[in-house]
Amino acid sequence: MRKILPFLIVFVFFTFVSPLFAASLRVEPEFPRPGQDFSVSIDFSPEDYPKSFTWFIDDKAVDEKSNTIKLKAKGLGEETKIKVLLSYENKKPEVLSRSVRPLILEILYEAETFVPGFLGIAPLSSPGSLIKFHSIVQMANTDSDKLLYIWKENGRKIQKSSGIGKKDLKVELDPFKKSSVFELNILDPKSGELLASRQVPIYISKNSLEFYVKDPDSNWAFSRSLKNKLYLNNKEELLAIPFNFSISSLFDPILKWTWMVNGRTIDSKKANSPYVEIDFKNKNKKRAEVELKVQHEQIFLQHASYTLKLERGDEGNKIIHEIIPDPDKASGFGI
Questions:
Q1: In whole angstroms, what is the distance from residue 245 CA to residue 210 CA?
Q2: The model's pTM
Q3: Within a 10 A sphere around the Cβ of 198, how many other Cβ atoms?
Q4: Is 4 helix (H, G, I), strand (E, B) or coil?
Q5: Is 188 within 8 Å of 177 (Cβ atoms)?
Q6: DSSP state of 246
Q7: Phi, psi of 327, deg, nearest 5
Q8: 20 to 30 Å CA-CA from 164: which of 173, 193, 304, 317?
Q9: Are 42 and 113 in contact (CB under 8 A)?
């Protein structure tokens, strides 16, 4: 046993380490779409750098001397055959081969998060909100409904959403993460061969508010536009539009609204609303601070807090609006 043991140790060592030094071909992107540009690179150890490369595309030699070649994918299901001959100084030549057959795999996703359409921006996922994924798959001579779909979140398989023909995924985002990476792997259920793969990074946004102030002509003006001075007619009518909150919270509703003026909470059932009327009858008052806090009653990390600083102008009846997010109570997790 003493004579055999050193041999076994060496044998085991090389069994695990030697594959790391084998040359291989890497395709990026690994599963290109029809007509998409892709590259093929040779991965090898610095100690085993080849003396020369000879590339063959569809069995025809091409004039490319580097360890990377750029190509364009053919039509759906049309194969591109790639070979490269590696010549070395002190060992036999080596031939690497790979074939690329383009396919269509698109993953659409929709956050169940609210953004008013007139803002012209896309909704972002927020802590604890739901998100839906739908995959579109086209492979030559293949019934996509009979393929095996493996969904993962941050590298972990989502067991209940994976299986034959399971193209869709609906999942609740982890409220404690700033981002999540969802991955779909499509396999041949018989052979287990990986046919396609895509990753979709999802960034979780903080919840936000947009404020509107009604002017004397009964029009609603964007209070974000601080260039315009708004006139005060003894009262302010304020409207807050929440976005990047869960859609369900807007219609149930399960958002709690708290308005405060100069540190005093407006103690009224009507104030538990995105709309509030605030009286400023005292003409001698030069400044006021209006604070709004909104909190999702079930998802505690969905919340927002803003302060509006109001100040009368020199003419006495003008008021300047400035919106300041509360830095000490940042809502959710920002990007």
A1: 12
A2: 0.65
A3: 17
A4: helix
A5: no
A6: E
A7: -70, -25
A8: 173
A9: no
